[in-house]
Amino acid sequence: MYAGPIQDLIDELAQLPGIGPKSAQRVAFHLLKATPSDARRLAESIIEVKDKVRLCRRCFNVADRELCEYCRDARRDPTAICVVQEPPDIVAIERTREYRGLYHVLQGAISPIEGIGPAELRTAELLERLKTIPPSSPQDGQETNGLGSGSNDPDANVEEVIIATNPNIEGEATAMYLARLISPLGILVTRLASGLPVGGDLEYADEVTLGRAFEGRRRMSG
Amino acid sequence: MHVAQLRLTDFRNYESETAELSPTVNLIIGANAQGKTNLLEAVHCLGGLGSPRAPDSALVRDGAERAVLHGRVVRDERRIRVDLELRPGRGARALLNGAPLPGTRSLGEVVVTVFFGPDDLLVVKGSPEGRRRFIDDLVVKLRPARYALRREWERVLKQRNALLKTARRAEARGVNETLEVWDDAFCRAGAALTAARLASLALLAPYVAKRYEAVAGGGRLELSYASEWLEPAPSDGALQRLGAIDEASIQGVLANRVRELRVREIERGMSLIGPQRDDLVVRLASGGGSGPLLDARVYASQGDQRTSALALKLAEHDLLTETLGMSPVLLLDDVFSELDGARRRWLADTVRDMGQTVFTSAEPGTLEGTDPDRIIAVRAGRLEAHG
Lengths: 222, 387
Hints:
Helix content of chain A: 25-40%
Radius of gyration of chain A: 22 Å
Order of helices and strands of chain B: EEEHEEEEEHHHHEHHHEEHHEHEEE
Strand order of the largest sheet of chain B: 2-1-4-5-6-7
Strand content of chain B: 15-25%
Number of domains of chain B: 2
Number of helices of chain A: 8
CATH class of the largest domain in chain A: Alpha Beta
Distance between the termini of chain A: 71 Å
Largest interface: A-B, 23 and 30 residues
Shape of chain B: globular
CATH architecture of the largest domain in chain B: Up-down Bundle
CATH class of the largest domain in chain B: Mainly Alpha
CATH topology of the largest domain in chain A: Dna Topoisomerase Vi A Subunit, Chain: A, domain 2
Distance between the termini of chain B: 21 Å
Oligomer: heterodimer
Largest sheet of chain A: 4 strands, parallel
Radius of gyration of chain B: 22 Å
Largest sheet of chain B: 6 strands, antiparallel
Shape of chain A: globular
Strand order of the largest sheet of chain A: 4-3-5-6
Number of strands of chain B: 15
Helix content of chain B: 40-55%
CATH topology of the largest domain in chain B: Glutathione S-transferase Yfyf (Class Pi), Chain A, domain 2
Low-confidence stretches of chain B: none
Order of helices and strands of chain A: HHHEEHEHEHEHEH
């Protein structure tokens, strides 16, 4: 145990994900050696992120305004919504430059062990977006380039919901739940394919992955 | 296949030791608590399945940061280098001929062992959990890629039980919709595991019968799979037929039963049927095999229970030899002292034809007829070779 402030800092750091007591101690002593301005900058960016960043009112991605950058962007295809678990998933998908539609962030996946059910996720809000009755017009009309009101609401004509939850047990259960929830609305629901990693070795693929790859095989000819 | 050399660094009570092993019969000898079993355990770990008796964290020598095993393995006349590093809290890493493997489980493609210790002697009379572990280990050894299947099943079961536990509570909203989703996952993973178990048991059954007859000098042993939900009832010894049932129909049967039990499962707050409650049943007929087949767990003498356990393990070795086209390393931990004279002599004789065998003993007096080609003496974590 250390005296006063340093131990407080170690205890706080150790609360962070992926940081154990040893790492917390290392970070704390690193910060102790840092210049006052470096330390202040770090402290300020932590405060700023809490002050300025909020969740997009429509898709629950992180945003610095009422709507996130994708919901504001008139060039995005409003007929497709890609459902992900967390905001970093959007960053990963955007890196591919394959997808031009909108997003919806669930803020997690169904996991009874952790006490997370549909009510703890943004599922009701997703359903609300999909219903043909447009949601109430947003306040920040000019930010949405005039697309955010009345029958022009981008979410009024969703044709496809792409479920991009993680390919693990919780992600699959969430996907299955959403598919059941959305199907009565007559909207196409698709799921990202899971299978063999590109550049991988078939020989080392596990049975579950290989089984999925077989299920999702594509026709090549004939 | 055999392990020619094994170097242990900070593994259990070994600081840095090298064991040279014979491709035939090896004896590890020493007083109690010197490290005999630890050496067997190290050989077992080379197969990537962890220790048969402890979590990885227990395998690192006190005060050390990691345990490292370097194995030289000979398989199909090829020399293969296997390196395994166990780092508590940070997982394990495996190298094959110096190249990293995607996971330690992949070592199962190279090194296969059958471990038989005092706990395994009790498998027939012990808890169903021990017998299920025996089947599930066999399922994975026959096809290492099935490990993911087993993991998925365990995770789904845990999630579904967690949901059922909260299902009665008032604050649990939307339980019914999510329960259906978990039912689907439960039935799919449960059927896949059950199909793999039945297929593996169907392959194992004839070998067990043969080994039992040999070690018991007569009598009859039959394996069956006990399950409350599987149809047709598997109690008629129809494993061969069961092994042929396809996964889709197993899934259908399980799904029907799960639907029927919905209310009761919510009341009880747990999954009431499924592979997690099934059991392997060993039945024996005494009197030269002409008597009725009786459940060995309830009716057999302790000697007969041990004989059946021995038959199960040797049959596992036979089946793996046949399926993989090579003999797994047979690891016998303190087994000889637990057997009577006749069975001891029979086993000593039998292992000579079973490829590489490593066995431990604290009592040289119980080893008549074993005639090992190499003897390694263990004393306080130090090895000393003889012969």
